[in-house]
Amino acid sequence: MQQGIFTIVSNRPVSGATYEMVLQGDTSAITAPGQFINIKLDGFYLRRPISVCDRNDSTVTILYKALGKGTEAMTAFAPGKELDILTGLGNGFDVSKSGEKPLLVGGGVGVAPMYLLAKELIAAGKSVTAVLGYNNGGDVFYAEKLEELGVRTIVCTADGSIGVPGFVTDGMKEVEDYTYLYTCGPEPMLKAVYDACKTSGDFSFEERMGCGFGACMGCTCETKYGNKRICRDGPVLVKEEIVW
Amino acid sequence: MVNTKVTLCGLELDNPVIPASGTFGFGYEFAELYDINCLGTFSFKGTTAEPRFGNPTPRIAEFSGGLLNAVGLQNPGVDAVIAEELPKLAKCFHKPVMANISGFSLEEYVSVAEKLNACEQVGWLEVNISCPNVHGGGMSFGTDPAAAAMVTKAVKAVTTKPVIVKLSPNVTDIVAIAKACEDAGADAVSLINTVMGMRIDLKKKKPIIANRTGGMSGPALLPLAVRMVYQVYDAVKIPIVGLGGVSTAEDVVELMLAGATAVEVGAANLVEPYACRNIVEDLPRVMEKYGIKNLSDIIGGAH
Ligand SMILES: Cc1cc2nc3c(=O)[nH]c(=O)nc-3n(C[C@H](O)[C@H](O)[C@H](O)COP(=O)(O)OP(=O)(O)OC[C@H]3O[C@@H](n4cnc5c(N)ncnc54)[C@H](O)[C@@H]3O)c2cc1C
Ligand SMILES: Cc1cc2nc3c(=O)[nH]c(=O)nc-3n(C[C@H](O)[C@H](O)[C@H](O)COP(=O)(O)O)c2cc1C
Ligand code: FES
């Protein structure tokens, strides 16, 4: 973990209520896709945990959905504004387990961490498929960006207006075989993906957090390998340890 | 040169700054960030006789003045604390540590205190009496002077370490509880623990925290803590460890003026991981600003 001051480079809507923010600062503590950052917002006591969507040596990109007061306040932030951020939080996805044909399944803002993951897997020469789920056609974001990386991308919408009608599990039916699964999204989606998943996999969870770095025990869940803090021992749990 | 040293129950502290139990784990997360030997000491996570998973999640909610938690005393149990956590801690912290203990029965307090009494690393026992007494109809030990005295006496009987009884603010008369603990042999009292509260999710129309209620902590507590420390100082002779809402060196000075010998910092560590180190580093500046040479001279200075 590292604390740093980041400067907003850009902050724009990418669809519906979802925004993309690019932040400039020291990104050296971010070591794996699927990790998250914890952002201090003026006027709010707790920091806001948000997944890393992309990173390079000097910038980190996040995708966030304006759901409550904190994320709504973020939508008004202008380039140049400085934010106090903790980086390098959480374990992240284990790219070494992917095999040759990994499948990535993202739902809603759970699509965010799939981008850096796909980028690293493509760079490692893997044949990557992504199934992305959204509520309706107007919500779709980052599908084209994944395609540009060379990822076979299957979009699913609950309202049926774009791509496969239905949920990510309907999109998963179009993928004949895969060697490992990576997923992030709302918990009911994770459970459905867990039930449909034919291989082992990395599942990324969310929980309300006090600190985000392992100190408060606010985010603990039970696993088959003992108690784990979602913020420190997660957010990624492997399929075999999840208690469902 | 200013002097930040204070003495708590016979043990000298380099400064009065003490991370509060439950907000500092067993120290390692913070030892990765800074040398935690800069602290006066710290109070480790509330420890019980058996391992505890704690409450279901969500355990955390936010409000403008801080947070609510219902962690439910998740801890690995006293045996694992002694066998695993303390040896690990010894590598990064070389001062006596404050052992925070909890129990759901008198016997549990006694057995945890007995075991930790045997540990050289432990400088003080901080006894959290805010837990419900399972044999007493679930009412917290800390809300009844007689029950608080009973725990104090029982723990004192099995330890040679100074016993600091940690008081709950969720009472009508905290002074009566503090006096009962002093009369029962407590070497010090610490106050305040969290204030019971609740938040409701407007979308789900249900409490946010799975346990429904949670303990409030954070800046909103400071005036309550200052008032309670002030009142208790007037009534007891034993030292007071003050806490509740502290996030700056000024807050430390304020609680000391109210009557605290040392000051704990809780929630601030969670949102600002360097909070305690920053307070320690800022203390000399604040002391100079207010003309304080010896920090220990100002204890109770507001009376
Ligand atoms: C590891 C992790 C990664 C995340 N990644 C993203 C992401 O990439 N993009 C994104 O849009 N969202 C992400 N979230 C969810 C995001 O943290 C919440 O949407 C955000 O905190 C809501 O804040 P608010 O002030 O708008 O909502 P409010 O409801 O007003 O927030 C009140 C409190 O509840 C907490 N809270 C509310 N909803 C959630 C939630 N779903 N998860 C955790 N805490 C919550 C807030 O942090 C705050 O402490 C992630 C959550 C976690 C735990
Ligand atoms: C997440 C969390 C866990 C806590 N766990 C304990 C505990 O195990 N034992 C205890 O005596 N107090 C516990 N407390 C209470 C704090 O030590 C402190 O008394 C309280 O939070 C008020 O101080 P603050 O406003 O500085 O946080 C906990 C507080 C928080 C926020
Ligand atoms: S949020 Fe504090 S331990 Fe996970």
Number of helices of chain B: 9
Cα-to-Cα separation, first versus last residue of chain B: 26 Å
CATH homologous superfamily of chain B - what is it? Aldolase class I
Structural class call of chain A reads alpha/beta
Summarize the structure in short:
Chain A is of the alpha/beta class and about 240 residues long. Chain A has helices spanning about 70-75, 110-125, 145-150, 170, 185-195; strands spanning about 1-15, 20-25, 35-40, 50, 55, 60-65, 80-90, 100-105, 130-135, 150-155, 165, 180-185, 200-205, 220-225, 225-230, 235-240.
Structure characterization notes:
- The complex is a heterodimer of chains A (244) and B (303).
- With 244 residues, chain A is of the alpha/beta class.
- Chain A is 17% helix and 35% strand.
- Chain A has helices at residues 69-75, 112-123, 143-149, 168-172, 187-196, and strands at residues 2-15, 18-24, 36-39, 48-51, 54-55, 59-65, 82-89, 102-107, 129-134, 152-157, 164-165, 180-184, 201-204, 220-223, 226-229, 236-238.
- In chain A, the strands form 3 sheets. Chain A has a 7-stranded antiparallel beta sheet. Chain A has a 7-stranded mixed beta sheet with strand order 11-10-9-8-12-13-16, sandwiched between helices. Chain A has a two-stranded antiparallel ribbon with strand order 14-15.
- In chain A, strand 12, helix 5 (187-196) and strand 13 form a beta-alpha-beta unit.
- The mean pLDDT of chain A is 96.
- Chain B has 303 residues and is α/β, with parallel strands linked by helices.
- Chain B has a single domain (6-298), classed as Alpha-Beta Barrel (TIM Barrel).
- A 7-stranded parallel beta sheet of chain B has the order 3-15-14-9-8-7-6, with helices on one face. Chain B has a 4-stranded antiparallel beta sheet with strand order 4-5-13-10, with no helix packed on it.
- In chain B, helix 7 (249-258) links the parallel strand 14 (240-243) and strand 15.
- In chain B, helix 3 runs parallel beside helix 4 (145-156) and helix 7 (249-258) crosses helix 9 (275-289).
- The chains are: A alpha/beta (244), B alpha/beta (303).
- Chain A binds chain B through residues 1, 3, 40, 43-47, 86, 207-211, 213-222, 227, 232, and chain B through 22-25, 29-30, 32-33, 45, 53-54, 57-67, 69, 71, 74, 208, 218-219, 267, 269-271, 273-274.
- Flavin mononucleotide sits between chains B (20-23, 45-46, 69, 71, 73, 100, 128, 166, 193-194, 217-218, 221, 243-246, 265-267) and A (210, 216, 218).
